[in-house]
User: What shape does this take?
Amino acid sequence: MSMGIGRPPGNRKQVAIKSLWIGVWLAFMSAPIKDLADGTHTPWATALGTLGLVVFVGCYLVLVFRPSPRMLSPVQVRIALTFLSALAVTLSLTLGSPWLVLFVYVSVSAGAALPLRTARWLIPAATAVLVAIGFTGGHPREIITALVFPALLGGFSMTGIRQMILTTIQLREARATVAQLAANEERLRLARDLHDLLGHSLSLITLKSELAGRMLPDHPEQAAAQVADIEQVSRQALVDVRSAVTGYRRPTLPGELAGARTALAAAGITAAIPAEPPEDLPEKPEEVLAWALREAVTNVVRHSGARSCKVTLAPRQTLDGRVLELTVSDDGRGASGTAPGNGLTGIAERLATVDGTLATRATDPRSGKGFTITLSVPVESDLGFPE
Assistant: This one.
């Protein structure tokens, strides 16, 4: 399972992956560490250099490897960058050319922590300071030129990564907002449906109850007729409510496709899912395919260990007529045994009610990895697929 961009690591594997990235970025620190280990400086200079390097790395990690760019305020970011730059200048001026590499990290920090409009001039400025200190200090030209490219490339690369993280966070927030709006719209729809279903019936029951109450002392026969009408209206209202609840509970392909997209994204699985199902699909085949899609995606999320999942939905002409074919394939560990589980058995039983078929296979037959399930339901005519 991959770690979500812009989110803190949620388990040990994600912590290990992020730590590996940290280790890769810190590879350039070998130069100042080697300089300290060589013993070319006085004990006081070595101790202060070690302390300065530890503080520098800590400040750098706070700026670059935050789960979200919004964890620090703009003022805190500027203070940290100013401190990091001052530390890089001090250490490189006092301890020699191996410490010029700190300006690469200053450049990377600026790209990771600042907006592009600010970072685009601060990254070249940090590189220019590197060059200026290198030449005025008489450091080897090859060291200076070797650090210029990493400083510029690393800084501007991090601006792209920062923008990607911010965009991902905004998309996640927008998706949450859309989900909330959809839930609100669904509640409004339920309220409208309940009003349409029960408003007239309950008003009629109330009116006839009042009439029956008035007629009881003197006209019991008419009161009995009103009570009979009340019973009839109540039964019809009960039938309407049961029919509406059945419709609400019935899964639909648009809803299950959206749910599959959300479930796979939450599990960190790369998903390829069609945007819209076909139009004019009969109610019963649609319900069967919706249940099957829900079960198949649940199996991918819970049991497959997959990194990607692909869902296809397309009409196909067979010798027995036209069918609508649903395929769910993943690149996970594959089938766990020879006997089908309860989920596949349930899918097969539902398909049997609409004369559908089910087939399973390994996504990669050579290695036996992955799992692909294909379901087909007959349809009577051409379906309207979006272009």
User: Anything to note?
Assistant: The chain is about 65% helix and 10% strand. Residues 162 and 291 are 40 Å apart (CA to CA). The radius of gyration is 33 Å. The first strand starts at residue 270 and ends at 272.
